């Protein structure tokens, strides 16, 4: 191994915009890496912040705050070396259980990174945050959903109302982890991208449907990758190596998420597990209609992985996984329909078939789909990118008539102090009304402040099911819809249902604060189980 190491060594360096070739140099306060691919960046010897990002001769680093993990790691031991033709900078924080790595290779305008943690990081989240000059990369992810220009904070310090009645929040830039391999910010003939290839998420928490901030357009253009956070947190943090992941500069084109990081094996990166020490599982996943995505999810206390099965036949192959025993879940969309366990060995290829065990009872009528998502319901197509009070939103609460109304007429969320209740009018035949086995089933995807359904049909009122497990984080107002996914059922007493017209009223048990911060829940689907009739799905 050929290695050259700098540890706080001062070497005279003259700033330049014409590249002199790939390599590492040292100035009084920083290490400088020239990728010979158009990107030159500086890393502070004191705290590991990136203090300069020059691409094709233009400075992209913001001026007020630097690019770093979280808001900076503080005093750190920072070392730099060249190993086997790669530049590696190691930042070992002195007051946090974290070691961060920057890696560069010749002719590649990419900063490869890995973040190794042995405990939770203050202040309870772990993110890479590049603070860029907005004058050169003005455009955030998902358009203007986090463009704060002229807008005023009205809920906490992160959710803003604009003069035109629209709302903004950095949470609205998020995408599901399973979908988010590449996201970025752009300008005129330039873009800066975060790339999370392969198993970059394996040590993060939250599973395939977790979402978190990707960008915010304020004084700086902020580009994020969240590894762990308290935003709608549903499981404990995992510890170990986050990544490898990367930040790449381009002249505008979006890069592939299929990024080779196998060279990390030769760089002594803590926690890195090469392909040769991993295994996989493959098989068939059946029982989910082709109109839904079939998602496989493997997890234990140390790692998490996922894959999407083929819609034709349900064939799947997992990513290369660390050895261990995993819980294996299958989802219809985001709704769990089967569970098993599987053991992975180094170099092994395991076979495992899995099939839906979700019951398929007779149903009188149904609103929505039990798929763990509210998108087909009223305002569901907007909730990821705007606040419920946004001027572009439809009304909340309202009335729905089975057999006449469309799914878009039923609200995707109900609030205890905003929008009122939702009523469902439905007709039953004599046989259906006489059934003594009717069951009302309400699926939810996320609860806030203990919100859960209250139900009433005629003179019968369903029992309060009790508050669900608390997630201490704003949800629907910041674009989140995914939590623990509680499903509630009530047996409807004989004599409650009537031949002809019936009315179900849904409200909210719980109080909370005012308006949209009152107790609430997001609706997945609602069905009345019993003998089939004219309105059965």
UniProtKB/TrEMBL annotation:
Q: Per UniProt, which keywords does this protein have?
A: Carbohydrate metabolism, Cell wall biogenesis/degradation, Disulfide bond, Lyase, Polysaccharide degradation, Secreted, Signal
Q: What class of enzyme is it?
A: lyase
Concerning InterPro entries, the annotation shows: Carb-bd-like_fold, Gal_mutarotase_sf_dom, Galactose-bd-like_sf, GH-type_carb-bd, RG-lyase_II, RG-lyase_III, Rhamnogalacturonase_B, RhgB_N
According to its UniProt entry, one GO biological process term is: cell wall organization
CDD domains assigned to the protein according to its UniProt record, in alphabetical order: RGL4_C, RGL4_N
Where located?
Answer: Secreted
Domain Rhamnogalacturonase B N-terminal, residue spans: 22-271
Task: List the catalysed reactions.
Answer: Endotype eliminative cleavage of L-alpha-rhamnopyranosyl-(1->4)-alpha-D-galactopyranosyluronic acid bonds of rhamnogalacturonan I domains in ramified hairy regions of pectin leaving L-rhamnopyranose at the reducing end and 4-deoxy-4,5-unsaturated D-galactopyranosyluronic acid at the non-reducing end
Q: State the Gene Ontology terms under molecular function.
A: carbohydrate binding; rhamnogalacturonan endolyase activity
Signal peptide positions on this chain: 1-20
Q: Which GO terms describe its cellular component?
A: extracellular region
> Which family is annotated?
Belongs to the polysaccharide lyase 4 family.
Protein name (record): rhamnogalacturonan endolyase
Instruction: Please report the organism this UniProt entry assigns to the protein.
Output: Apodospora peruviana
């Amino acid at each position: 191994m050929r290695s050259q190491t700098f540890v706080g060594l001062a070497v005279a360096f003259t700033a330049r915009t014409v590249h002199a070739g790939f390599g590492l140099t040292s100035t009084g306060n920083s290490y400088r890496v020239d990728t010979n691919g158009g990107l030159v960046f500086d890393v502070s010897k004191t705290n590991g912040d990136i203090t300069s990002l020059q691409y094709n001769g233009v400075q992209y680093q913001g001026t007020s705050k630097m690019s770093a993990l979280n808001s900076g790691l503080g005093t750190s031991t920072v070392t730099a070396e060249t190993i086997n033709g790669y530049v590696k900078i190691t930042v070992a924080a002195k007051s946090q259980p974290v070691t961060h790595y920057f890696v560069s290779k010749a002719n590649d305008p990419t900063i490869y990174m890995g973040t190794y943690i042995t405990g939770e990081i203050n202040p309870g989240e772990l993110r890479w945050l590049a603070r860029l000059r907005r004058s050169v990369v003005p455009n955030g992810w998902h358009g203007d959903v986090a463009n704060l220009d002229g807008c005023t904070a009205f809920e906490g310090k992160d959710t803003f109302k604009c003069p035109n009645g629209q709302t903004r929040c950095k949470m609205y830039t998020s995408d599901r982890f399973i979908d988010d391999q590449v996201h970025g910010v752009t300008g005129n003939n330039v873009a800066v991208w975060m790339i999370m290839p392969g198993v970059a998420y394996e040590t993060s928490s939250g599973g395939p449907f977790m979402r978190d901030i990707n960008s915010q357009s304020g004084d700086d253009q902020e580009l994020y990758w969240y590894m762990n956070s308290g935003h709608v947190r549903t499981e404990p943090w995992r510890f170990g190596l986050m990544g490898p992941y990367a930040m790449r500069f381009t002249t505008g084109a979006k890069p592939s998420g299929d990024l080779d990081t196998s060279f990390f094996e030769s760089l002594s990166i803590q926690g890195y597990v090469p392909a040769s020490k991993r295994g996989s599982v493959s098989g068939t996943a059946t029982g989910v209609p082709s109109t839904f995505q079939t998602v496989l999810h493997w997890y234990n206390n140390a790692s998490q992985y996922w894959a999407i099965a083929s819609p034709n036949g349900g064939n799947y192959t997992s990513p290369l996984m660390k050895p261990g025993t995993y819980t294996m879940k299958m989802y219809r969309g985001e709704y769990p329909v089967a569970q098993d366990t599987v053991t992975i060995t180094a170099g092994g290829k395991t076979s495992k078939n899995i099939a839906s065990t979700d019951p398929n009872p007779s149903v009188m009528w149904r609103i929505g789909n039990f798929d763990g998502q509210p998108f087909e319901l009223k305002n569901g197509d907007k909730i990821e990118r705007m606040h419920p009070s946004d001027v572009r939103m439809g009304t909340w609460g309202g009335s729905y008539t089975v057999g006449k109304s469309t799914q878009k007429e039923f609200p995707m969320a109900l609030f205890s102090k905003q929008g009122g209740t939702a009523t469902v009018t439905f007709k039953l035949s004599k046989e259906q009304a006489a059934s003594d086995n009717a069951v009302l089933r309400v699926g939810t995807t996320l609860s806030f402040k203990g919100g859960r359904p209250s139900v009433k049909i005629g003179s019968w009122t369903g029992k309060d099911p009790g508050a669900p497990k608390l997630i201490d984080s704003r949800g629907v107002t910041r674009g989140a819809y995914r939590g623990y996914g509680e499903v509630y059922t009530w047996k409807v007493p004989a004599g409650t249902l009537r031949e002809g017209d019936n009315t179900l009223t849904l409200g909210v048990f719980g109080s909370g604060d005012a308006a949209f911060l009152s107790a609430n829940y997001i609706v997945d689907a609602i069905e009345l189980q019993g003998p089939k009739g004219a309105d059965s799905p």
